[in-house]
Amino acid sequence: MVTNYFKILPFLLVLILSSCKNESQTDASDQAVNFPDKNLNPIDRYGDLLMAVQTNRIFPDGKTFVDCEPKIPSEEILKNYNAQKGKEGFNLKSFVLEHFTLPETPTSNFESDTTRSTSEHINALWSYLKRDADAVENGSRIALPNAYIVPGGRFQEVYYWDSYFILLGLKEAGEIELIENILDNFAYQINTIGFIPNGNRTYYLSRSQPPFFAEMVNLLAGIKDEKTVYLKYQEALEKEYEFWMKGANALTEKGATGRVVKLADGHMLNRYFSNTQTPRAESYLEDITTAEESGREASEVYLNISAACESGWDFSSRWFADPNDIVTIQTTNIIPVDLNALLYNLEETLAKARRFNENIEGAEQMVKAASDRKDAIDTYLWDASQNTYADYNLVSEMVSPTLSLAMVYPLYFKVASPQQAEAVSRTLKTQFLKPGGLVTSLVKNKQQWDSPNGWPPHQWLAVRGLQTYGFNDLAEEISTRWLHLNDRVYKRTGKMLEKYNVIDTTLVAGGGEYPTQDGFGWTNGVYLDLNKD
């Protein structure tokens, strides 16, 4: 039955996407990909019930309810809710538990044995983090046709950019078939939905995440026959590029549309955006509270919150007009250095795929696009006064004063000149290197993508980027400090965490909308890859 479902699902999704438009979309998202049937999104599917559950904080974590599976059709649930909610003694939590199945956390059954090495612990965890191809589900999960790895903790679905760093560990574990399964799932989503969502949940269909798919293809091409891999995924790569560049041809002068920005000198760069201007279903209470406290137009705040989630850095001082206050969030005013380095890589990868497909003219177009983007990065995202890469603010028309580890992306993707790489290495060493590795930013504001936290992807990108330019001593120092911190926390707690306090290594990292999670996919992948050196 599952096999037949996946044979027809691509055609059904394409049909739905072409015929349905989310009624919550506004003019600002006209450039975006349309949703599937809006009733699949929990915020539309459950309406007043969802709002009541989230605003009354029935569960400590807002993600719990939207991950529940209904026991009966949602129309019947809503009918029962409307009939019962006004009655004396009505208990909202009891109603939810009666009508929904709570999400499971399989890794909670895993018993750590700290006599194992960290690597042995990680390799024992893969089977707990692995999910087989999905059956048809009636909750918020978007079913995928192949096996995949989830990060762990509250995150029981595949996540886009997490997956690249998970692949690093799977490669070391020899799980090549699983790596290809994960790429096939992403290609499937691109071909059926039009882009790779933040995660395979219907409430993530408003946004993507940092576009690492091209680098995933490059990773697999380094393992299997190169030409076969690039030709297999070329169509998906082309469609992802179309998603990020949609509206570019319509920009005849300085301005922005969707995820594309045209600068005064004609250069084209990209920003993070969102397909909606509504609260996130999984963080409904947090979003309406932020909007109310901001004193701004609520839809503007929701757009910028969702765009920050697309960045993966949710949340960070990078996106705030006041680095210490989320109510000043302005993500769509920022041209991010990391996103544009990633798209440079996508353009370079497409050039390679087109050459294998004997499309020489098309390959040259991508070479030129990548060259133009590199020029634009040098012009707008290099801060000569601070001698490093930084984001660009479209409103102030200046480089952002907020420095972050986004500066390492141009090194990893070979956008930087030797002189720029040397300058970035000095900034990393003098300002960002801490006892446990690299701190994400220099701002301490209780946001999880700021000080004192360090995150696995950035340690890895920094190490590999520095090695590319010959700064091996600093790369080794970062790697050593990070691995030792991972080992110490594992021996103390029996867990691999999603992020760490790199300043005070006796403490667990914090900040953000939820407690620090364990598992943890990308931490495991980065550890195994760095530990092989």
TrEMBL record:
This is Alpha,alpha-trehalase. Keywords: Coiled coil, Glycosidase, Hydrolase. Residues 346-373 form a coiled coil. It comes from Leeuwenhoekiella marinoflava. One of its GO terms (molecular function) is alpha,alpha-trehalase activity. Pfam families: Trehalase (PF01204). InterPro entries: 6-hairpin_glycosidase_sf, 6hp_glycosidase-like_sf, Glyco_hydro_37, Glyco_hydro_37_CS. It comes from the Bacteria. GO terms for biological process: trehalose catabolic process.
